[in-house]
Design brief:
There is one protein chain. With 253 residues, the protein is of the alpha/beta class. The chain folds into two domains: 81 residues, ACT domain (Alpha-Beta Plaits); 144 residues, Rossmann fold. It contains eight helices and 13 strands. The protein has a seven-stranded mixed β-sheet, sandwiched between helices. A four-stranded antiparallel β-sheet has the order 2-3-1-4, sandwiched between helices. Strands 9-10 form a two-stranded antiparallel ribbon. This is DUF3388 domain-containing protein. It comes from Paenibacillus psychroresistens. Pfam families: DUF3388.
Amino acid sequence: MKQWYMEYRIHKNRPGLLGDIASLMGMLEINIMSINGVEDRTRGMLLQTDDDETIELMGKMLSKVDNITITALRTPKLVDILAVRHGRYIERDSDDRKTFRFTRDELGLLVDFLGEIFKRDGNQVVGLRGMPRVGKTESIIAGSVCSNKRWNFVSSTLLRQTVRNQMSEDELNPNNIFIIDGIVSTMRSNEKHHSLLKQIMAMPSTKVIEHPDIFIRESEYDYHTFDYIIELRNSPDEEISYDSFTTPFDEGF
């Protein structure tokens, strides 16, 4: 059966409104999989039916209801599924739709978002911006756990600086998640590491690159390499700046 996402804005939340909508869906044999309030006076639903015409009919019928306005009726996107699950939308850049913004108090939502991305097969490159110790690497590991996939550090400074020059056949399984520190891999490594990095970037697998702006600046890859850019801040107004921790011998990040 096919899933649909429906979202509607409530103009007057009269008693029994949700019951009336649910009853209509029941008569049309449309299953409500999950439902939640999404932002202010907006409700989102994940629906299931095997008849596209029934969904179209329901949309036309609900458009006649004075108390609500249908704002979305579509095949669910990842952001729709998470909006229903968490009761809020992920903030996206208005100009760059591949950029998603989180703050540290939204780590649960970020981990869920990463976990859903990591479940997908094939080539994916995720960039993760953020200041030191904001929770970047921990979120990637937690997302890998949620997706039931193994993670491998290609380069990192989580406990100590790690620069891998080779990996075993088991580690190079395309189903694994490869974690790359964009500063370490481009500014603090050697030719053997660069060769391994190039091999991993060419694999049909998920790569997560911390500090993607430095990675782009110091390597042959560009912005179009990335499928998602995630920004993680301690607070919404925090500026992400690399000036204090991009010198070749600075170990403090």
